[in-house]
Amino acid sequence: MAQILIFLGPPGAGKGTQARVVAREFGVPHVSTGDILREAARKKTGLGLAAKAKMDKGELVPDDVISPIVEERLSQPDCREGAILDGFPRTTAQAQFLDGMIERTGLGEPLVINIQVATDSVIKRLTGRRTCQTCGEIYNIYMSPPRRDGICDNDGGRLIQRADDNESAIRIRLKAYERDTLPMIDYYRRKNALRQIDGNGEPEVITERLLNLVKTHDYL
Ligand code: AP5
After folding, report:
1. CB 38 within 8 A of CB 132
2. Which mean pLDDT values do the consecutive 10-residue runs of the chain (220 residues) have?
3. Is residue 209 part of a domain?
4. Could you say which of 64, 69, 113, 128 has the lowest number of CB atoms within 10 Å?
5. Which range marks the domain in which residue 105 is found?
6. Does the C-beta of 22 come closer than 6 Å to ligand 1?
7. Any catalytic annotation for residue 24?
8. pTM of the entire structure?
9. 205 Cβ partners below 8 Å, 6+ apart?
């Protein structure tokens, strides 16, 4: 039965940074809804262009657009053993959709991990983020810079700054997090399904905390 790990947390909590490492460790795909939407935007598909208009402003894409995309992605053969979900669900409606999907498809109950970071500490993380255009490696020009400015250490790819990593979009993303995602986190808390991880500290230390938690629950 496929085991799904869900990483929650505010923008800049380190969901993507950690999901990449943990997915590699367990040999399961890292399913990032943000990456899926950005890839669609890069390819200029209808979905991608509509999503880009929302994303660049920091607004959420509608639930009925993103939820079927996730269902389709999780039905791919590479997710047979499990997957790490990063960026989904992020509203209560999406969490309920996922519950329905679990019932319909026989997916296992997910392990839901909330990476806790104070929202006022994420601005520096987000404005300093740079991402490799080729392999997706995540850097931070203040805290974890590449060896050469603007160039990925792994493959020499160009590092880019996300269009929504400017202060005005970040403010809107944080508002969306407080308005739409915090109630969803409560939804999992009420179901007694929420596990918490302190997201402050060196990324390697947080990876250790996550791996220990996943192993304690005998996942993946
Ligand atoms: P998405 O791509 O999911 O963005 P997000 O949720 O805002 O999260 P981020 O990717 O900004 O943060 P992260 O927690 O992954 O941090 P990271 O590891 O990169 O979504 C983007 C948009 O797509 C949304 O606004 C929405 O429009 C749309 N969308 C996506 N999913 C959707 C959905 N389900 N429903 C509706 N719309 C959806 O780290 C950030 C920085 O911090 C990096 O520079 C990193 O190097 C640094 N860092 C990481 N860990 C540490 C650490 N421990 N200490 C210091 N620095 C650190």
Report:
1. no
2. 93 98 96 97 95 96 96 95 96 97 90 92 93 96 96 98 95 96 97 95 96 90
3. yes
4. 64
5. 3-128+165-216
6. no
7. no
8. 0.96
9. none
